[in-house]
Design a protein that fits this description.
Blueprint: H1 2-18, H2 36-68
């Protein structure tokens, strides 16, 4: 387990350092090259948007449930 963890950690460091790694191939996935920091910001924005939609949906369902209860 320790050896695999070291391999994953090394691959992640390499990916974050220069945006490419043999373990993280993105051939044909993105049309424009992106820095790892920009990709991370994009992922964080997407996660935030999903979280906001889930929270607002939950409040909407609670409001409907309380109104008709």
């Amino acid at each position: 387990m320790g050896r695999r963890r070291a391999s994953i950690t090394r691959a992640l460091r390499e990916y974050l350092a220069n945006g490419e790694s043999e373990h993280f191939r993105t051939d044909g996935v993105e049309s424009t090259p992106q820095s790892p920091a920009a990709a991370l910001r994009k992922d964080i924005r997407l996660a935030t948007l999903i979280l906001v939609v889930v929270v607002l949906s939950a409040f909407g369902f609670m409001k409907v449930f309380i109104e008709f209860y």
